[in-house]
Task: inverse folding
């Protein structure tokens, strides 16, 4: 039996030629193209989080969703959500609507009572010679002898000056009627502490109360030799309290003291220390109160 083109006798030669061809060809020529390989096996959905879209498509997965359309979750804040303030915005000024301090005017007479009791010592009187206590307050004459005072304050912690009002009389000749008339006026005197001593606890120093020049609150006594704006007033108890300022600017705890020998009044930092230094001329601590007219 014959075949056109080749015979069975040529088959061994063709098999040998094919073996030689395979032996001389590189391995890459015999490998399967990547496009024909099976896609990688996906173990879990979370394992594909870092894949690119090309790798996801090659594995038969859909592409990743665009980042700009990702919904916010409770753990991932929305960058486009309005910012919520933790506290309300402050006003331009905390004191923008604060009411101005209003002064209250008081007028009457000052009575001194022994500290810690209601026992009166006398009414305070003021003159060019000084400030003192009139003595017993049991009679009407003693009340009239006390100086009538006036002051204005904006509160229990505001320092102010006390003015002693003194009546003065003047006789005026009226030329038209030929008669004489009497006209009354008021002169003012400031009641304060006259001196420049340094007061403190344990110190025997004292400063007498007297008529002084006008000074500002917390002013030092070095320039004027005294202080007028040393008083505070408690509207509930009607008590007047003195606050002395030392020459160095310090503010000692100040007490008012009364000397029975001449009725003089002092401010001191330590009444017991003063009496220890002056055993023959002791003083007593007193509290001043306003008695309104």
Result:
């Amino acid at each position: 039996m014959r075949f056109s083109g080749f015979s069975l006798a040529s088959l061994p030669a063709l098999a040998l030629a094919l073996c030689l061809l395979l032996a001389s060809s590189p391995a890459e020529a015999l490998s399967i193209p990547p496009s024909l390989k099976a896609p990688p096996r996906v173990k879990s959905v979370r394992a594909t989080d870092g894949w690119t879209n090309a790798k996801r498509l090659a594995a038969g997965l859909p592409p990743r969703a665009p980042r700009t359309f990702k919904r916010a979750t409770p753990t991932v804040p929305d960058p486009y959500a309005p910012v919520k303030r933790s506290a309300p915005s402050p006003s331009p000024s905390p004191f923008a609507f604060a009411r101005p301090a209003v002064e209250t005017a008081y007028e009457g007479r000052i009575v001194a009572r022994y500290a810690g009791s209601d026992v009166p010592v006398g009414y305070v009187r003021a003159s060019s010679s000084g400030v003192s206590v009139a003595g017993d307050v049991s009679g009407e004459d003693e009340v009239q002898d006390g100086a009538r005072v006036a002051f204005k304050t904006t509160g229990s912690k505001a320092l102010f000056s006390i003015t002693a009002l003194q009546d003065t009389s003047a006789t005026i000749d009226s030329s038209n009627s030929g008669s004489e008339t009497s006209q009354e006026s008021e002169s003012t005197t400031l009641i304060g502490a006259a001196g420049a001593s340094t007061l403190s606890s344990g110190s025997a120093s004292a400063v007498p109360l007297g008529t002084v020049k006008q000074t500002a609150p917390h002013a030092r006594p070095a320039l004027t030799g005294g202080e007028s704006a040393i008083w505070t007033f408690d509207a509930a108890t009607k008590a007047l309290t003195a606050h002395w300022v030392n020459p160095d600017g310090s503010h000692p705890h100040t007490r008012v003291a009364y000397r029975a020998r001449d009725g003089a009044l002092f401010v001191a930092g330590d009444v017991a220390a003063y009496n220890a230094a002056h055993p023959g001329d002791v003083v007593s601590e007193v509290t001043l109160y306003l008695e309104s007219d």
